[in-house]
Automatic annotation (TrEMBL):
InterPro entries: ABC-Purine-Binding (IPR052910), Peripla_BP_I (IPR028082), PnrA-like (IPR003760). It comes from Hominibacterium faecale. This is BMP family ABC transporter substrate-binding protein. GO terms for cellular component: plasma membrane. Keywords: Signal. Gene3D superfamilies: 3.40.50.2300. Residues 1-18 form the signal peptide. Residues 33-321 form the ABC transporter substrate-binding protein PnrA-like domain. It comes from the Bacteria. The lineage of its organism: Bacteria, Bacillati, Bacillota, Clostridia, Peptostreptococcales. The keyword rRNA-binding does not apply.
Amino acid sequence: MKKVLAVLLALVMVFSFAACGGGSSDEGDKDAVKVGCIFIGSINDGGFTQCMNEGLEKAAKENGMELVKKENVSDSDTQGAKTTATNLIDQGCKIIVGCSFGYGDALNELANSGDYDDVTFLHFSGPYQNEKNMENFFGSMEEARYLSGMAAAAASKKNVLGYVAAHPYTEVQIGINAFTLGAQAVNPDVEVKVVYINTWGDAEIEKAAAEQLISAGCDVLTYHADSTATQLAAKEAGIYTTGWNYNNNVAGENYLTAPYWDMSAYFTPTFKAIKDGSFKPTGTKPFSSYGSIESGLICLDKLGAAVPEDAQKQINEVKDKMAKGEFKVFSGEIKYNNGKTLCKEGQTLTDEEVWKIQGEVEGVKATSNK
């Protein structure tokens, strides 16, 4: 009997030890650095927010960090964004990530208030940064936009391409112009029609703009907006489309490719630097951190069957040159559609000059839904 009791007691001790082991894992989680993420949309939106979330998830896992997420936060309400950020800080977040342009004012105010010097603020796009605790990051998306323009022109039969565009703002116009220049490299006579929808994301408005472009004779569509509504409109109309932000094909055989972000290429090394204490915003203009095809932040999805083989070869050759730093989109003589000079013969625009672009290049006709 005593032997049986001894065995039972030993078993109890083994199970108790195993239970304690589970508890130590929980303690490790409690020590993880918390990252507060402010999203403009749903993390399952099939577009920009999902792309951003997946990059954050990968980077957090790599660095043993914990994400605290706030979805569907308006980026046009500065006070609301500020309240969201301070709530995340109150929950113990030591890193705040603003995942849309419009959060910049709120995060800039908090970063420079003197109250949150121990918090690191990372903001996508926008002009705000300092040399202490706030970094803005972006990348040369004009590279992938140029390549997608080449694919669009190669697939077009009518030589008329449509572009659903968020706002007549520099970031958007850089993309429009790069897309157009890429298309013109394949067909100098191609025309690009743009409709500005004056919102970063609204599926109904995006679809209406896409249908407007289809009615105007466009047989390939692209977009700079948050949802996949333009892809779906193109599929319904039986025309081709490129995606945007995220390599998410919802148009089937009508899908040509997509310029998209691998956000982990930025977040993984940045989180590591914050964690080991080596992080310091550069203060470099226009962005503290600026990725590219070469760095892995900027990507182009695989090319669809509708892109002819010779065009695919040409696109891949240009992409290889970009990856080696041997091809710049805004180089040589380029004029705006009002006749003014954007880039002179023999000139290559610097990143800072690219981010001063105001307007569309020759070959673009733009209207607004306002």
